[in-house]
Specification:
The chain is mostly helical and 219 residues long. The protein folds into 2 domains: 1-37; 38-217. It has helices at 3-23, 25-34, 39-72, 79-122, 128-175, 179-217. Helix 3 (39-72) runs antiparallel to helix 4 (79-122), helix 3 (39-72) packs antiparallel against helix 6 and helix 4 packs antiparallel against helix 5. The longest helix has 48 residues, at 128-175. The N and C termini lie far apart (48 Å).
């Protein structure tokens, strides 16, 4: 067995070990703290990952809208290809939505552990002034976090109406592969465009809130 094979297997083992620990949150956080990675660091990383997944979802939904428009704008087209294109975009949007939801859950998990630990540690102060200052920092951070996570959930919820409209039309096209189907899709394009515009705007607000939160917690 070559050195590269050994190194590869070691990386795989480490990956599965960390993945196992991630399934047991308290064990995972304890293990990470032993190597100098604290809940605060994990939280920042997860907020960044959630922000990035929302940014990617923004682009994916905009791409889907463009594909939808390009299909309904054609008077004559290969309907099977049209269906395949829209279905691919729908599946990609659905995956992007799942990724966003998963990232948000991870942010909530680590933030819950972080704030619980912070509250407990404040009780350990013998210096009342230090305790008061730390409690104020906690309240400020919690407030910024609540605003950020609310915007994340608002953006997350705005994905569902888009996916619902998209799925309805993809299924309709699948079940009615004829010229009439394309004509009926044109009526739905306006609705889809409105919902995606709302989604993109809310995603932008959530991304901005994430950046503000990250900047504040890193000060």
């Amino acid at each position: 067995m070559s050195f590269s094979d050994s190194k590869f297997r070691l990386v795989v083992l480490i990956f599965f070990f960390v993945s196992f620990l991630a399934g047991c949150s308290s064990t995972y956080y304890s293990a990470m703290e032993k190597v100098g990675v604290h809940k605060r660091d994990i939280m920042v990383d997860r907020v960044e990952e959630a922000r990035d997944s929302q940014s990617e979802a923004q682009e994916q939904f905009k791409s889907a809208l463009e594909q939808f428009n390009s299909v309904v704008a054609l008077e004559e087209t290969d309907l099977k290809k049209a269906y395949d294109r829209l279905n691919d975009e729908y599946e990609a949007c659905s995956d992007a939505a799942d990724e966003v939801s998963g990232r948000i859950k991870k942010v909530e998990q680590v933030s819950e552990a972080l704030f619980a630990e912070w509250r407990e540690e404040i009780k350990q102060y013998s210096n009342k002034e230090y305790a008061r200052s730390s409690r104020k920092q906690l309240e400020t951070t919690q407030q910024r976090y609540d605003e950020m996570i609310a915007r994340m959930h608002k953006a997350e919820k705005s994905m569902q109406p888009v996916l619902t409209i998209f799925n309805d039309n993809v299924l309709f096209l699948k079940h009615n592969l004829n010229a009439q189907a394309i004509g009926s899709l044109q009526n739905e394009f306006a609705n889809l465009e409105v919902e995606i515009d709302k989604l993109v705007a809310r995603m932008g607000e959530a991304i901005e809130a994430s950046n503000t939160f990250i900047a504040g917690i890193q000060q």
